[in-house]
Amino acid sequence: MFRILRYLILISLISSGYHIFISEYFNLSERNFLVREIIKKEIVEDKKEIIQEKKEKVTLPNIKKNIDKVQYVEKKIEILQGDTFVSILKNLNFEQENIYEIISEIENFFDLNKIKTGEIISVFENSFGEIKKIEFFKSSETIISVNLDKDINLNIRELNKDSFVESKEYTITESLFSDGIKNGVSADILVKIISLFSFDLDFQRDIRVNTVVSISYEFDEIIETGKLQYNDIKYASIIIDGKKLEYFKFITDDGYVDYFNRAGKNVKKSILKTPLDGARISSNFGMRKHPISGFNKMHKGVDFAAPTGTPIYAGGNGIVEYVGSNGGYGKYIRIRHNNGYKTAYAHLSNYKKGISKGVRINQGEVIGYVGSTGNSTGPHLHYEIIYQNKHINPLKLKLPSGKILEGKELEKFKEEYKIIYADHLSMLYE
Fold first, then answer.
1. What's the confidence (pLDDT) of residue 7?
2. What is the domain extent for residue 207?
3. What is the pTM for the complete model shown?
């Protein structure tokens, strides 16, 4: 009995000890689990802070700044004989749809037919060889820029220029032109001198050795390109055997640039009989057998044979009344003058840039170039003078002298020519 009681007590002690062990084990395991979870959360939180710190320290690149610094490679394309803007864009692998869009946008602001052979088109490519911009000159001082980055955007940019006045004086030993070139005078200015004095001088007979030429003229320098653009003569004189012919630039009250001597008398006749240099008469005014139709027909002007491209001068001060194609006349210009006269010019190869209906023209200004358009057997200028809607013979026309200044206009001119002359001498001898 005692032995049985002892076994029961022993079993009871073992059961209690096992129960206590198991309870403590699970308590300890749960505590360790909680500790691991807390540690895990702390580690995660620490990682988040570290990651957040890294995020705060990382700075993204300034994308706009990099885009602004994109460098394009410029390629220059010279317009060759037969080239058109369309053919150039095709050669640059533009799609037909894009070509149409680009041409349409440009034509809203500029007539692409006015781009001439020898002019340059600049094409700008990015590093992937994609064309992003096209530029070309609208005039010597204006650039048209076609941006193709996303949409087609046109930008017309005026170039900066500095204006100058220069004076030169030289003595002729060979000819007015060749000696002028030797003395640094632009060919453009020399042509203007010859035109200015052609009313008073025969350059074949009157000009001789020791003739003194003295001139003052205006020119602009285009800053971006360095090109020089020669403008008006301000003063010009030619001294032959002690006799001095001189003329001063003056803008008249009716807005024309003209030239007068010190007495206020205009150098020019009202209308030029021959509006181009170095030409021969190939057909006179009057009845003739038409070289193409073969019928006898009134020839209402004078034909001057000259090489294609020879410059044609305005016969007098006036307003362009008509410019464009005119049937058998081909490319044609007509100018209305203030004194009831009109002059007409036919069969031109082309017009000078800027010549359009309503434009004011000065006598001797280039308006176009000799050609053979319309009903023509070869390059020549057909020149007409019309008075009160009646055609008259240019070669037999008794032309009145040009304008003579009077009154307040004369007084204004005298004040201006004195300043021009003083400035001229100052620049020559300073």
1. 57
2. 161-260
3. 0.54
